[in-house]
Amino acid sequence: MKTIIITGGAGFIGSHVVRLFVNKYPDYRIINVDKLTYAGNLANLKDVEDKPNYRFVRADICDFDTIYQLMQQEHVTGIIHLAAESHVDRSIKDPFTFARTNVMGTLSLLQAAKLYWESLPEKYDDKRFYHISTDEVYGALEMTHPEGIVPPFTTKASSSHHEAYGEDFFLETTKYNPHSPYSASKASSDHFVRAFHDTYGMPTIVTNCSNNYGPYQFPEKLIPLFINNIRHRKPLPVYGKGENVRDWLFVEDHARAIDLIYHRGTVAETYNIGGFNEWKNIDIIKVVINTVDRLLGREEGEDMDLITYVTDRAGHDMRYAIDSRKLQAELGWEPSLQFEEGIEKTVRWYLEHQDWMDNITSGDYEKYYDDMYKNR
Ligand code: NAD
Ligand code: DAU
Questions:
Q1: Is residue 288 a part of any domain in this protein?
Q2: N or C: which end of the chain has fewer CB within 10 A?
Q3: Which of 164-198 are b and which e, b meaning 16 or more Cβ less than 10 Å from the residue's Cβ?
Q4: Residue 48 is part of which domain span?
């Protein structure tokens, strides 16, 4: 019997990971530990909340005593750690919160796991501490393609992609060079995780993934924010010239990679996860506008005039691009969705779940937790 704590399970990626594990592994016990910050939303997990192998615990990962006691009570054998402050713009305004949760919170989890697992006769045997990180820790790449980046419309990690775009990708060996308070805090947490392997022999794994998109993403991030704004014909704030490049991966493909790596990844290794799917922001924004317009029965492109160029994000990284060939070669993972399918599915989901969106934008989802947890 495996008992796994998934931290940050009420957030965007965490909710997909919880759903996958609860449904795929009925004989595992899955404990979702989440503080329910503004980014946590239990509505993301409505379909699994009554499953017998699922438990939700509202807790702050910085609260060492609570986490340590939970590990003892539940005989926890693994941790998949996603809880974090995740939005770059917020980190620019409030870096302390990012250092607290991402650095101290990760350290508190590591220390609780260390003390608990080292107290057992079998110690670290069959244990895992899997830390989910980001490609942003590597810094920023230049635009290497002579004609700039054009949508490749492929999710295959192939040598042809490298021929077209050159060799300028983030590898697992790329030196860390974070620029934002968010990426600096994630880089710091990655170092702590590796240090716990090197110093104490904890069986850790770290993965660094590119930009995720899909259902249940908090509408402060580019894609859900813009889908909602287009629907309501509100301006679309494009930072700078809209030329920054991100490498987009459908969130369920990330969750599948996490499942595979948790079970078959090699301890102390790092794996990069990405879809070989680079887009300039302005190009992806145009695809989103066309898709929303079409699905709402408007004329395609009718809402292009909502595009509003605004002051650039401070320290805005130019380009992220992950080389995920190690994961593909060693564990056989590859993205399942072509980008056109993924974006269509995503836009359709948000348009069909306006109640989910309204619940967030009205703030009602937070009031609900306050009532629910007031006396606990
Ligand atoms: P998110 O902001 O949607 O969710 C974060 C979750 O963590 C929320 O449910 C929140 O309540 C919880 N949380 C925050 N602080 C906490 C604390 N102190 N204690 C307990 N729970 C807390 O984030 P996301 O986009 O789902 O990202 C999840 C993880 O994946 C993060 O570690 C992030 O760095 C990483 N990541 C994200 C992306 C992406 O594109 N979104 C890409 C690569 C890596
Ligand atoms: O690369 C992985 C990272 O992707 C994760 O580690 C982060 O947690 C996640 O938030 C995401 O970071 P980004 O900063 O790339 O995502 P965001 O959706 O905030 O922005 C995507 C791009 O769009 C970025 O270049 C900034 C730009 N942007 C964003 C917003 C919200 C705009 O032009 N306008 C906007 O309003």
A1: no
A2: C
A3: ebeeebbebebeeebbbbbbbbbbbbbebbbebbe
A4: 3-214+248-274+315-338
Measured distance between the N- and C-terminal CA atoms of the chain, rounded to whole angstroms: 29
Of 308, 313, 316, which is best to mutate to test ligand 2, by the most ligand atoms within 8 angstroms of its C-beta?
Answer: 313
Lowest mean pLDDT among 136-150, 155-169, 212-226, 340-354: 155-169
pLDDT at 162 over 70: no
Span 147-165, average pLDDT: 50
218 alpha carbon – ligand 1 mean position (Å): 10
Kindly list the distances between the CA atom of residue 364 and the CA atoms of 5, 66, 88, 167, 219, in Å, as whole numbers in the listed order: 27, 28, 24, 47, 14
The single residue of 54, 130, 182, 262 carrying the catalytic annotation is 182
Q: Is the pLDDT of residue 165 over 90?
A: no
**Which residue among 34, 135, 172, 252 is the active-site one?**
135
If one residue of 222, 225, 243, 308 were mutated to test the ligand 2 pocket, choosing by the most ligand atoms within 8 A of its CB, it would be 222
Kindly indicate the confidence band of residue 161, based on its pLDDT and cuts at 50, 70 and 90: low
Domain assignment present for residue 285? The answer is no
Helix, coil or strand: residue 200: helix
Q: Is 136 a catalytic residue?
A: yes
| Closest ligand by atom to 135 CA | 2
d(CA 38, CA 8): 12
Are 68 and 118 contacting, i.e. CB atoms less than 8 angstroms apart? no
For residue 221, tell me if it sits in a domain: no
> What is the 105 CA–ligand 1 centroid distance (Å)?
12
Longest dimension (CA), the chain: 66
Respond yes or no: is residue 167 known to be catalytic.
no
Establish if 44 belongs to a structural domain.
Answer: yes
Q: Is the CB of 101 under 6 A from ligand 2?
A: no
Could you give the number of structural domains in the chain? 1
